[in-house]
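Hi V.,

Quick status before I head out on leave. The structure for the redesign project is tokenized and pasted below; the design run finished overnight.
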């Protein structure tokens, strides 16, 4: 069975960057789990703080959790929240072990997360680093190790907000045309970052254009782009 694990630094990132791929994978019979390392309560909740500068951080977390939960329900995925805090996120060995255990328990076939670089965000590269390390601890051991050893999952970065500056080079496009309405509904749950809905709908359309040109498949209208980190192994060149 195909299993998709999405590791999101903040509680909204997974929706903008991979909501269509999550919905499509589930429609295709895959099991999906989203892990939000934090709620993005400090760095990505500007509109909530603008609405009421006196609200507590706990209150922002509650709202952000509900929004992400609602989006996950629309996409039909399971979701977990680790509450690691944001801006700055801190990665300890304990937290690395926590994520390693989640990977071992879920046994994903594919992992999606952030890019290694993001000069405009202090937490996204940390999410990449902890994912890389936890993935290796889950599957890299050639001998008995402290962690459950699973088959190595494929893993990809999803598209960052400013791809060129993050050295993002997409090599995989997922056609999300059939699920774009679902992605739109999920994006609209994220009240804290409403302006991003238009931005990511346009991006999906632009990536759809690229996917159409690359493949010659005129049916592709919307797409999400990813960058792979390990070679794909097949038994045929075709
Ligand atoms: Zn983020």
């Amino acid at each position: 069975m195909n299993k998709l694990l999405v590791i999101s630094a903040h509680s909204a990132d997974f929706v903008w960057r991979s909501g269509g791929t999550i919905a499509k994978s589930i429609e295709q019979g895959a099991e999906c789990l989203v892990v939000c390392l934090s709620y993005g309560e400090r760095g990505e909740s500007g509109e909530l703080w603008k609405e009421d500068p006196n609200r507590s951080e706990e209150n922002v977390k509650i709202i952000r959790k509900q929004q992400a939960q609602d989006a996950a329900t629309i996409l039909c995925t399971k979701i977990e929240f680790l509450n690691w805090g944001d801006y700055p996120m801190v990665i300890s060995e304990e937290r690395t072990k926590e994520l390693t255990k989640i990977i071992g328990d879920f046994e994903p076939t594919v992992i999606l997360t952030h890019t290694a670089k993001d000069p405009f965000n202090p937490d996204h590269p940390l999410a990449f680093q902890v994912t890389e390390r936890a993935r290796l601890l889950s599957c890299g051991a050639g001998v008995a190790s402290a962690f459950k050893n699973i088959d190595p999952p494929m893993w990809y970065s999803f598209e960052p907000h400013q791809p060129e500056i993050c050295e993002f080079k997409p090599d995989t496009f997922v056609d999300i045309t059939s699920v774009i309405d679902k992605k739109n509904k999920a994006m609209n749950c994220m009240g804290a970052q409403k302006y991003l809905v238009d931005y990511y709908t346009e991006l999906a359309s632009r990536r759809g254009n690229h996917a159409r040109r690359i493949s010659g498949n005129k049916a592709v209208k919307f797409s999400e782009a990813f960058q792979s980190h390990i070679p794909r192994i097949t038994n045929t060149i075709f």
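Above is the designed sequence. The helical segments are 13-27, 46-51, 57-75, 93-106, 124-139, 180-187, 195-215.

G. will cover questions while I'm gone.

Best,
W.
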